[in-house]
Amino acid sequence: MLKAIALSCIRDDRILFAELSFSLQQGQVLLLEGKNGSGKTSLLRILCGFREADAGEVLWCDERIGSAQYHADMAYVGHLEGIKKELSVLENLTVALALSIPGRYSIAEALAQVQLTGYDDALVLALSAGQKRRLSLARLLITQRLLWILDEPFTSLDKQGIQLTQTLMTQHCDQGGMIVMTSHHDLNLPGVDVQRIRL
């Protein structure tokens, strides 16, 4: 459903990648690998529609990305968690839910899944870095997004948090979801078809 055709990206007169093509179907994960500065985040930004490719195109269901439908089907979690630090945990998730189609988890169920039960009224300012990362995962669970685009999703997580995140990712793929991600950590997603591209 997601297809990249002959993508090229140039930054500061340096070619990060050229003629890059791939396709991703439901239930699959695409893992982007490479050293810092190789273009992984730039590619994610192109896939999100935040940046234009210097050449090539990205298709979603055989149509160029940028439509309202694509943005309704896609969720992005980058280095910044996309949460408001001045709001509480519950307020952040309530706002996210109001802007999206509800997913299969209620807010309470999502908080339980990411082990933040009891933190409803806690201000995000008071959360640890790992808890903020788990809150951003809860946001994914409460909204109905087929495609997750994740930039280093294991950042700031301990071993238990990494395992939890991988479990949620596996469940998402088992339910027909798809993921494009970068990571410097080993990936353990039993039964999931993981494609790898090294930039």
Give a verbal description of the structure.
The protein is of the alpha/beta class. The protein has a single domain, classed as 3-Layer(aba) Sandwich (Rossmann fold), CATH 3.40.50. The protein is built from six helices and nine strands, in the order βββαββαβαααβαββ. The strands form two sheets. A five-stranded parallel β-sheet has the order 6-7-8-3-9, with helices on both faces. The longest helix has 16 residues, at about 160-175. The radius of gyration is 17 Å and the shape is globular. The mean pLDDT is about 90.
Short description:
This protein is of the alpha/beta class. The chain has a single domain, classed as 3-Layer(aba) Sandwich (Rossmann fold), CATH 3.40.50.300. Helix content is 31%, strand content 28%.
Q: CATH homologous superfamily name? A: P-loop containing nucleotide triphosphate hydrolases
Can you name the CATH architecture? 3-Layer(aba) Sandwich
User: What percent of the residues sit in helical stretches (DSSP H or I)?
Assistant: 25-40%
Beta-strand fraction estimate: 25-35%
SS elements, strand count: 9
State the order of secondary-structure elements, H for helix, E for strand. Answer: EEEHEEHEHHHEHEE
Kindly report how far apart the N and C termini lie. Answer: 22 Å
Rg computed from alpha carbons, rounded to a whole number of angstroms: 17 Å
- The SS-based structural class is alpha/beta
Main beta sheet: strand number and arrangement? Answer: 5 strands, parallel
- What is the name of the CATH topology? Rossmann fold
Number of discrete domains: 1
Low-confidence stretches: none
Spatially, the strands of the biggest sheet line up as 6-7-8-3-9
Average of the residue pLDDT scores: 92
H/I helix tally = 6
The CATH top-level class label: Alpha Beta
Keywords: ATP-binding, Cytochrome c-type biogenesis, Membrane, Nucleotide-binding, Translocase, Transport
Protein name: Cytochrome C biogenesis protein CcmA
Pfam family, one: ABC_tran
GO molecular function: ATP binding; ATP hydrolysis activity; transmembrane transporter activity
